[in-house]
Amino acid sequence: MTTHTSVPAYAAPSAKAPLERITVQRREPGEHDVLIEIKYSGICHSDIHTARGEWGEGGHFPIVPGHEIAGVVAAVGAGVTRHRVGDRVGVGCFVDSCRECDSCKAGLQQYCTGKLGMVGTYGRAGRDGEVTQGGYSTHIVVDENYVLRIPDSVPLDAAAPLLCAGITLYSPLAHWQAGPGKKVAIVGLGGLGHMGVKIAHAMGAEVTVLSQSLRKQEDGLRLGADHYYATSDPATFETLADSFDLIVNTVSADLDLDAYLGLLRTDGTLVQVGAPERPLPVSPFALITRRKSLAGSMIGGIPETQEMLDFCGAHGIGAEFELIRADQINEAYERVLASDVRYRFVIDAATI
Ligand code: NAP
Ligand code: ZN
Ligand code: ZN
After folding, report:
1. Where in the numbering of this chain does the Enoyl reductase (ER) domain appear (predicted)?
2. Rounded to two decimals, what is the model's pTM?
3. Which residue has a Cα nearest atom 32 of ligand 1?
């Protein structure tokens, strides 16, 4: 029988209740497990959707959110070969998958079609039946195959948001070949969006930010955008008609997709990564008139996440963040909901 250790964490006790300090049980590291001392944990908008029950999973409350985890290996199981005590490591949105389906074999564990499915870092029953608890905590135990190496050139606090925000933008930008000669628009300059600007710029694309206002224009240009437009100005949609090869929509709220599809060139693609709770209507004519594509993308697999971390290491890319104490999490949630985040809140795990 597996023994457990209690560790402190911050959890949502039920949907819509504020987060509070609790203790959770972490299993003793098994043969292929890594015990990570968490140093930093990013706050993703998905944490808020989940903690507030917006995605309607019913939920395994109390739930400890957090899937942008950066820390240091504190112990390893006897069979671990990929990581050593003292290594700087990260954990993203999932901690296991079936390992046998076509997706898993292709390194696309996030699209696992096996019976186990992708085991989310929090709120999901794992292969041992225990419900996972995430990164707003001091320690976590994860199978070595789902633990990433963080390059030395990226500080751990700036690295944490790469584990979700970074890979969620890297994957579609790589898949739809953002690069020299490509015009890419990033919709929403929040946690995901600001990583998209940095990464698309580093890939060599011409980058435009489409934000609700010009409030963050200076930041956007500093982060690597070539152009910046306010979507509250109807003239933006005329000026930029037929402009982009690729648009990545990171907005966490409802958006008029037809208006954005109008900004694509012939054969262009709009990739949805934002995940608001309600359906988004699309007019067939917005797609068929110029052979446009509407696509979706979810985080990235383990090999691609490592590739993204190495890419960020080579290009000196980390997140822009505001470091907070654990007792500021609820306040930070409100600020994220008000689009008042520059550009990720990162929890200092030492304050948990
Ligand atoms: P975030 O930091 O809150 O950023 C979202 C941005 O969307 C805001 O900064 C804001 O940008 C814009 N926005 C917010 N409300 C808006 C509104 N009513 N109308 C127009 N624009 C609005 O959130 P995030 O952490 O980046 O996450 C964004 C979304 O992606 C969430 O729904 C999250 O669950 C989802 N997500 C998906 C994946 C995936 O794998 N597909 C992974 C992680 C997160 P401006 O102020 O610039 O307008
Ligand atoms: Zn996330
Ligand atoms: Zn699988």
Report:
1. 17-347
2. 0.98
3. 252
